[in-house]
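Hi,

Apologies if this is the wrong queue. I'm a grad student, and the batch job for CASP8 and FADD-like apoptosis regulator from Gasterosteus aculeatus aculeatus produced an output file that my downstream script rejects. I'm not sure whether the problem is my script or the file. Here is the sequence I used:
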Amino acid sequence: MFAQGGHPVFRHSMSTKDQLSTTASVRIAVKDTGSPASALLLTKKTMALPDQFQLQAIQQTAEALDGRERSRLFYLCGVTDVDNTAGCVEDVLKSRVIRHQGEDQFLPELLLQLGRFDILKEVYKTSRDEVEKALTHRRVLPSFKVLMANINEDMAKEDLNSVKFLLGQTLSREKMENAQSFLDVIIELEKLDIVSPGRVDLVEECLRNIGRVDLAKKVTAYKMSAVPSEGHSSPQQRHRAPCPSPTPNCSPCLQQTLRAHPIHIATENLTAPVYSEQSQMEFYKCNTNPRGVCVIIDCVGNDGDSLKQTFTALHFNVVLHKWLSAADALSVLGEVFRRRENLAGDCFVCCIISRGTGNHLLGTDSYGAGLHLDDVRRLFNADACPVLAGKPKLFLIQRYDILEIPPRAGTQHRDEDLETDGCFGLSRCDLVPTDADVFWSHCWTGEQQLVRGDHRSVYLQVLRDALHKGQRRKTHLVDVHTEVNAAIFEHNRRNPGATYHIELKHTLRKELYLQ
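Support response: The file is valid. Your script probably expects a header line. Output copied below for reference.
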């Protein structure tokens, strides 16, 4: 079944007897201009059916797939309204093998899209790399269906519910209730000719309005690559082809729904293109293990442990300090890059949770000037800490505003206190963040929030959730923070007496993915 080089080959010679035994009759209705439709019976048309090896491989494949994978397979093969059984999978695959005679990569490409590399290895005796290499210049599966199937896999349940809500006046309630997946919704939209290979604006609009910018960009990339002949154009040809004619941005029903139920999405004026092959914007290298050091200073005691779990899952070396005074916090930060193991990472993260006022953090102090936020940033700029030059530096600050400034007493921090041997001294900078490669997210709320013993910062909760989703969806950091903005906006709308204020400033020169 495999030619030299390991590429899958499904053509097999058949004896004359075998060919005669596979003769099929096909009835075709033909309409002749000016005359009634007549039925032509075409007989003795030889159609090569799958050989014994293929039949066995198809059977093994069908039995190995679960219900969700069978549904995706049916969609990729353009089959709807069939029983979700292994038997139906066998029938569909047999018919498709006949249809794609000469297309040896059909079955391997299908398994590649399903992510069943184990079947490729055990049944078809090939590997993912070999199949991808064979598909470099030619693919069989329609790129539109592949796109929809991939979006389906990346869509969480809450995302699906949001899409169904937006389309509530486009599809009937019965259709919505029966839709158990994104593909079910797409199938119904295709039936109405609202969505098709040349008409995907509605899908893109919905994805953007539910905050799935990462998936919307995939649709944008598809629109930018014209598909003159599905399954018969190379990626290079598709990128050179002109873009298809624009279609309506969204249906009147969707516009009406959005007007009636606006969804707040905190947007940022970015021009981040879609994929690396189309993008002028580069990506920060962030793949060392660990990714870098994450210093967490929790002077309140409620969210530090949860943050540690989050950044540990993001492959950072996390150092958590609790209940520090302002002076101790400054000392801890100054010691970070004196440790040799912290020098090799691709990224740096600093999280601080503290009471404070304005641009000062008090830590556990009940008096004093506190630690100025500019001083925190200046500790890690390129002049003070050359090892971080060109690397992304993330500062995530949760401040609880005290009602009034306590009388000044104790030690006041001076510029000379900021010097550290590990970072080779400091140079003065302006307001945050003026240096390159800085991501500064600063949230503040009233100190009264801490009266409850079980208090958890809403900002830090939604930030953790967004970072986990961003890791799973491969979303870059600025888009991740857009979801945080939206969640804070919604919280404030529902809880006007416990509002949070959030400020994002960044000087990132590239896209940053925390994977």
